[in-house]
């Protein structure tokens, strides 16, 4: 039962969807902070008076609706970067390492492939034998040969 659960969780698409969801949640926080702290005060600004701090007061002093709060926005950016760093180093890197040991490439460039001359299936470019039809593959062209002498 635990093996089945582990196999389900370790499927590439489940991890990809989970990471995508986490990125979307973190990004939504960033967008919400930008909207609440930057866009809303610009829209609500009725008077051109401004004071400087970690933000600008665009209306009457003390009116939170017209305060352009750059501090909250910078905080959201820092939160997003830290959160994505944690996701990357705690989820993506270990998962990539585990999948690499299983012979699967995830979250990166796919290895170069070539078509098998016999069955036309995609196989790794460095393959000497096709895993589908077991036919011998020609050596990669452009390689150097060592000569004696």
What's the end-to-end separation, in Å? 62 Å
Share in β-strands = 5-15%
Secondary-structure element series: HHEEHEE
Beta strands, count: 4
Strand order of the largest sheet: 1-2
- Poorly predicted parts: 143-149
- How many helical stretches? 3
In percent, how helical is the residue content? 40-55%
Gross morphology: elongated
What's the Cα radius of gyration?
27 Å
Overall structural class, as computed from helix and strand content, comes to mainly alpha
Let me know the largest β-sheet.
2 strands, antiparallel
Q: What is the average per-residue confidence, as pLDDT, rounded to a whole number?
A: 76
Write structural notes for this entry.
- By secondary structure, the protein is mainly α.
- It is 49% helix and 8% strand.
- Strands 1-2 form a two-stranded antiparallel sheet. Strands 3-4 form a two-stranded antiparallel sheet.
- The longest helix is centred in the N-terminal third of the chain and has 33 residues, at 12-44.
- The chain starts with a helix and ends in a 25-residue tail after the last strand.
- The chain crosses the membrane at residues 72-93.
Summarize the SSE layout with pairings:
Layout (H helix, E strand, L loop, with lengths): L1 H8 L2 H33 L10 E3 L9 E3 H32 L11 E3 L6 E3 L25
Antiparallel strand pairs: 1-2, 3-4
